[in-house]
């Protein structure tokens, strides 16, 4: 990952990609697990309601989840799954309503993120691919965004336009992941170490 901007405390982080996930993988899940293992109280949320993967990554049920919370049918605490000795809490996507609704851009989503910020040190959101409008809506509600870009997309005009669209929401791009490169895993670990070091630096100055 590159371009970590030390501009503010990064408590809520959206992870989005140039393409949808087709397998049981999630960078947000990897980052959340690594931070939770460092001892921080962490929550991971699957906000890709149409193509959820987090429940498959952790082999969890997905009968209820985020969609139920946003529709006022459950509380966040009621649908969370606890892992890694209680340091990692997971909100799966839940089942989609029979009629497609814009749940991500609602005041309920904004209120949920604010609630989680009061209860957790780190919030990682597995978001939809960044060419979907939901990703832009999420970006406007979080402290920072991690973009996962396939090398073939890295210098395309379409990708540059999408990055500019994210920046217009006021969101801060704190990392760029280049998929399918030899240093991918080491770069991911380096990014987490820098993020945690920045948190420590912030606490010492406050």
* CATH C-level class: Alpha Beta
CA radius of gyration = 16 Å
> Which regions are unreliable across 5 or more consecutive residues at pLDDT < 50?
1-8, 200-206
Shape call:
globular
Oligomer: single chain
Cα distance spanning the termini: 27 Å
Largest sheet: 7 strands, mixed
Number of domains: 1
Query: Total strand count, please?
Result: 7
Q: CATH homologous superfamily?
A: P-loop containing nucleotide triphosphate hydrolases
Please identify the structural class as seen in this structure.
alpha/beta
Q: How many helical elements?
A: 8
Based on the structure given, which CATH architecture is correct? Answer: 3-Layer(aba) Sandwich
- Helix and strand pattern: EHEHHHEEHEHEHEH
Into which percent range does the helicity of residues fall? 25-40%
Per the CATH scheme, the topology name is Rossmann fold
Strand order of the largest sheet: 3-4-2-5-1-6-7
- Please state roughly what percent of the residues sit in beta strands, choosing from under 5%, 5-15%, 15-25%, 25-35%, 35-45% or over 45%: 15-25%
Would you tell me the overall average pLDDT? 79
What does this structure look like?
This protein has about 210 residues and is an alpha/beta fold. The chain has one domain (about 10-205): Rossmann fold (3-Layer(aba) Sandwich). The chain is built from 8 helices and 7 strands; from the N terminus they run E-H-E-H-H-H-E-E-H-E-H-E-H-E-H. It has helices at about 25-35, 55, 65-70, 75-80, 105-120, 135-140, 155-170, 185-205; strands at about 10-15, 40-45, 80-85, 90, 120-125, 145-150, 175-180. A 7-stranded mixed β-sheet has the order 3-4-2-5-1-6-7, with helices on both faces. Strand 3 (about 80-85) and strand 4 (about 90) form a beta hairpin. It is globular. It starts with 11 loop residues before the first strand and ends with a helix. About 40% of the residues are buried. The model is unreliable at about 1-10 and about 200-205 (pLDDT under 50).
């Amino acid at each position: 990952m590159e371009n970590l901007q030390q501009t503010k405390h990064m408590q809520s982080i959206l992870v989005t990609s140039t393409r949808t996930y087709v397998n049981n993988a999630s960078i947000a899940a990897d980052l959340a697990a690594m931070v939770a293992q460092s001892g921080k109280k962490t929550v991971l949320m699957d906000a890709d309601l149409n193509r959820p993967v987090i429940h498959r990554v952790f082999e969890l049920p997905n009968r209820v989840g985020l969609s139920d919370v946003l529709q006022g049918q459950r509380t966040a605490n009621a649908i969370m799954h606890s892992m890694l000795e209680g340091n990692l809490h997971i909100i799966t996507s839940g089942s989609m309503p029979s009629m497609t609704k814009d749940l991500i851009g609602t005041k309920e989503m904004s209120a949920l993120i604010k609630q989680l910020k009061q209860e957790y040190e780190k919030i990682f959101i597995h978001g939809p691919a960044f060419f979907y409008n939901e990703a832009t809506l999420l970006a406007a509600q979080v402290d920072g965004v991690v973009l996962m870009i396939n090398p073939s997309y890295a210098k395309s005009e379409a990708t540059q336009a999408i990055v500019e669209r994210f920046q217009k929401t006021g969101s801060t791009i704190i990392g760029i992941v280049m998929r399918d490169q030899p240093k991918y895993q080491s770069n991911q670990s380096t990014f987490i170490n820098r993020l945690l070091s920045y948190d420590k630096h912030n606490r010492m100055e406050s």
